Amino acid sequence: MSTSVRTESVEETRALGRRLGATLAAGDVIGLEGDLGTGKTELVKGIAEALGVTTVVHSPTFVLHHQYQGRLPVEHYDLYRLEGMAWVDTGLDEPAPDAVTLIEWPERAGVLEGWATILIRLTGGRDNRRRLTLLRGPDRVREVFEHAPGD
User: Which of 12, 91, 103, 141 is a good FRET partner for 149, with 20 to 30 A between their CA atoms?
Assistant: First the structure.
């Protein structure tokens, strides 16, 4: 059963990411679905902050992949531009068991969407208002969504 939360600003989206990031463990794979401008990278920024990443987090749209160091390594993929490439060209043969893997646009690679232990769909984006729907995830993540401010 899915559960949703609404955020009203970029900061609220990042704050939800920080709460989510605090629950993550090595081997977690998060798939982030949603149109352009729905806040996927903003959520990633909050997650990375909670994981102790101190460098600036950028969308890897043009390079497909960024790696960050924190209390856990963070592997961040953006597959938006994957069209015309094989998903194996991303360098993502399988999720890193010692890292948190974040995949924006996992549906572009098909097989990767199935790897997501946590799957979140983001909609909206107009005036920075977004709806984040947890489609799949363990209870520890579901609790973040159920107890998030908003809605």
Answer: 103
